[in-house]
Amino acid sequence: MRNGLKKILFIITQSEFGGAQRFLMELVTHLDPDRFEISVASSADPGDLLHALKAKQIATHPLKWLTRDISPFGDLMALFEIRGLLKREQPDALFLLSSKAGFLGSLAAKSLVTRYALLDTRIIYRIGGWAFNDPNSWLKRKIYLWAEKLSARWKDIIIVNAERDRLQAELLGIKPRKKLLTIYNGINTSSLNFLSKNEARQRLMQTTPSLRHSVTPSLLVGCIANFYKTKGLPVLIDAMARVHKTHPDAKLIVIGDGRERQDLETRIMKREAQNYILLAGRMAEAWRYLQAFDVFVLPSLKEGFPWVLLEAMAAEIPIVATSVGAVPEIIENKKSGIIVPPDDPASLVQGIAALLDNPERATAMAQEAKRVLEQKFGLKKMLGEIISLL
Predict the structure, then answer these.
(1) 326 touches 160 (CB < 8 A)
(2) What is the pLDDT of residue 119?
(3) pLDDT at residue 19 greater than cutoff 80
(4) Which of 182, 208, 238 is the last residue of a domain?
(5) Which end of the chain has fewer CB atoms < 10 Å from its terminal CB, N or C?
(6) Is 205 within the bounds of a domain?
(7) Cross-strand partners of 337
(8) Do residue 102 and residue 214 come from a single domain?
(9) d(C-alpha 145, C-alpha 140), whole Å
């Protein structure tokens, strides 16, 4: 502790915005600068996180070698890079986010304990969904599980954001030195300035030329997601092709982008669905457009605790989501939304159609979801639980 301030170093693998980056921004921008000295290290690859942090005058450390994909040489270089950063910074607490940063960061800290007096540094690891649950090869999943079990002994506290993930960790023997606990994500609903339905649709049409003359007065099914395999977007495309046969005025708009775009575009073309399935690309503050949609769909194959689900609840948009991660802990099936199995287009079709065909029931579910959100998933609650661990 220097000058009465507790020094916290955060390390996160990617700068591209997703759930972990959203959590980090919410946390560091609400930490009291009179109590904490904060800095954040992340991949130097293009992404909005480091720029957003700099705009908030938060110290940043771009890491040249830290990447999401496994790379023996690159990961070894990243380990030395992180080790050097820890030697310089000497933080009171090291807060690690995401699998790669969690492993390399805790290993780097362990290697420095005896020589560089990191004995009092608290190692906190927050994971938004175990990587060994991703739809990868058997070998890759085993490697991720081994890495989590091995590195858990180098960490003081592990935070998950779904009770399902905590129970799975206990079952698999992922044991930190002190605590393994669940802390749900939380948002401040009063700070969310949603566009009205009409304005959101108008802006969508203006922003994306391919959407012109396609949005109004159609029924809109919406999704906001990075284009990763874990997001289940091919399943959503297949489901929407079936929905369109019985609801020809319904269209799907997916806000987001990523490495799977070309495959998704090919899938849409094969189904001759270009006129009613539209990829809108990335949009700043995408959550502001939620009220453009009649139904919001989260078709993920794997999740931790999805922020976008909280945002859809705040916007009072009827929700269909898959039963992955914390989703069943957020949404009560057929009461505050509809939950369906992952990777199941037929069930997704039934869920979407049920809400499109029953607008009064859909509205009642959306209102119930907003009530649950305000009771259980507030930002103040999340921040208080995290800050008590620093």
Answers:
(1) no
(2) 64
(3) yes
(4) 182
(5) N
(6) yes
(7) 333
(8) no
(9) 9
Query: Quick check: 350 pLDDT over 90?
Result: yes
* Whole-number pLDDT of residue 208: 67
Reported in sequence order, the residue ranges of 91-232 that DSSP labels E, i.e. its strands, are 93-97, 122-127, 157-160, 179-182, 219-224
What is the predicted pLDDT for the residue at 48?
A: 83
**pLDDT score of 47 more than 60:** yes
Do 294 and 204 share a structural domain?
yes
Give the residue, 45 or 326, on which the prediction is more confident: 326
Whether 254 and 285 map to the same domain: the answer is yes
Quote the tokens at residue 376: 């259980």
89-126 tens-digit pLDDT:
999 999 999 999 999 999 999 887 655 556 678 999 99
Q: What pLDDT score does 112 carry?
A: 78
CATH of the domain at 140: 3.40.50.2000
Written as six digits, the tokens of 200 are 């959101």
Tokens of 332: 């009560």
Q: Which residue, 97, 80, 83, 100, is CA-closest to 10?
A: 97
Tokens of 107: 């290993």
Distance separating alpha carbons of residues 5 and 188, to the nearest angstrom = 27
Q: What ranges in 175-232 are assigned the alpha helix state H? A: 197-207
Q: Alpha-carbon Rg of the chain, whole angstroms?
A: 21
- Structure token digits, residue 92: 């009171």
Taken in order 147, 152, 153, 156, the sign of the CA dihedral is: positive
Q: Is 381 among the domain residues?
A: no
| Helical segments of 271-337, H only | 307-314, 327-330
Given a cut of 80, whether residue 215 has pLDDT beyond it is no
CB-CB neighbours of 138 under 10 Å: 7
The residue with tokens 């023997």 is 173
Does residue 387 form part of some domain? no
Using CA atoms, how far apart are residues 302 and 291, in angstroms rounded to an integer? 25
Q: What is the mean pLDDT of the chain?
A: 91
**Strand order in 295-298's β-sheet?**
277-281, 250-255, 219-224, 295-298, 319-322, 338-340
Q: Which of 136, 162, 182 marks a domain boundary?
A: 182
Tokens of 4: 């009465």
Which residue carries 């189904």 as its tokens? 271
Query: How many other CB atoms are found less than 10 A from the CB of residue 335?
Result: 12
Residues 16, 66 within the same domain: yes
